[in-house]
């Protein structure tokens, strides 16, 4: 059975760039946009054109160079924003305007001092206006995660009538539980008239560490687009990490969902974003963290040396990491030590290994990690009559 395609909407250059201190210049944005296009993302959200002349220029330049992906610009439900976005996108082969407004009671009351009817009117007006410039119009219902489902369904129905092609259901504050977010998508699928004319999109923030789980719950329940960023960067605790959702769909064939991402470029793309933005990922970050394919405990290392599938669910080469690492620490066992010693040129007998292992443990206790040079020192200190291999 052929798999359903989930579109990957990358917002590294818009939501991702909202991280304090991560501002990119246009040249850097172009480099990243080219790489995202090569990676195979379906949509690149290139910026928020009305927000600054720099952002306008970036969206315009990215529109000129992107070959395959749709290029998208963000707007509020404001005429001027939409006009400026349309202008910035004028060179794009496939332009998309992403417009929207807050729909939760707290946004309606405190941000807009408006009524629900007025919000629907503004949403419909924005979509209709955006449609006068481009065919592809995505509508976001900001804070949809905390918007009641009946009202959200009404908003969705009205904006579809106005011509919206994609409905973004953001969990703006990262509040939803996966079950709740999934149920929201299912509710919209089942209760919005005309829903077959639009794609439902997940846009999840990570305030409770649930962005990835929520996005997966969303697509399991009928959404067919995920909005995400490289390394999960973004406002506050960040967005859904692109590399995580892509690999989850790839590693779980029973979900019957797939993306067109070239996963072998994931690691280098992550590094490119780190280099340009100067924001590091924690070593234990899934898929792209420095320790994602490193094994340090003796039990795990022994299993890995026998067969890597014992402790690795992803072949590191699939995400562009050249090899897994067997890290030698005081927690490592004889198997890992013998394995590394062999790599640097020593074939140890069982008796030699016992002696070397004792030296190794005292050495490793005083050092975080034992490297190849240290192995030579340890062999020498063990006095087993072996000299450094040529
Ligand atoms: O989190 C959010 O609600 C957003 C919208 C502007 C799409 O980023
Ligand atoms: Zn967001």
Q: Please, could you describe this protein's structure?
A:
The protein is α/β, with parallel strands linked by helices and 390 residues long. The protein has 2 domains: 4-277, Alpha-Beta Barrel (TIM Barrel); 294-382, no CATH class. The protein has 14 helices and 12 strands. The protein has helices spanning 26-39, 53-65, 79-88, 105-111, 116-131, 149-162, 178-191, 211-220, 242-251, 266-277, 298-306, 334-343, 350-365, 372-382, and strands spanning 4-5, 7-10, 43-47, 70-74, 95-102, 136-142, 166-171, 199-204, 225-228, 257-258, 294-295, 325-326. The strands form 3 sheets. An 8-stranded parallel barrel has the order 2-3-4-5-6-7-8-9, surrounded by 9 helices. It has a two-stranded parallel ribbon with strand order 1-10. A two-stranded parallel ribbon has the order 11-12. Helix 1 links the parallel strand 2 and strand 3. Helix 5 runs parallel beside helix 6 (149-162). The longest helix is centred in the first third of the chain and has 16 residues, at 116-131. The radius of gyration is 25 Å and the shape is elongated. The termini are far apart. The site of zinc ion has 6 residues, from loops.
Order of helices and strands: EEHEHEHEHHEHEHEHEHEHEHEHHH
Task: Give the ligands present.
Answer: 3-methyl-2-oxobutanoic acid, zinc ion
Low-confidence stretches: none
Helical proportion?
40-55%
Tell me, what's the shape? Answer: elongated
Computed CA radius of gyration, to the nearest angstrom: 25 Å
Mean pLDDT: 96
Largest sheet: 8 strands, parallel, barrel
CATH topology of the largest domain: TIM Barrel
The CATH homologous superfamily of the largest domain is named Aldolase class I
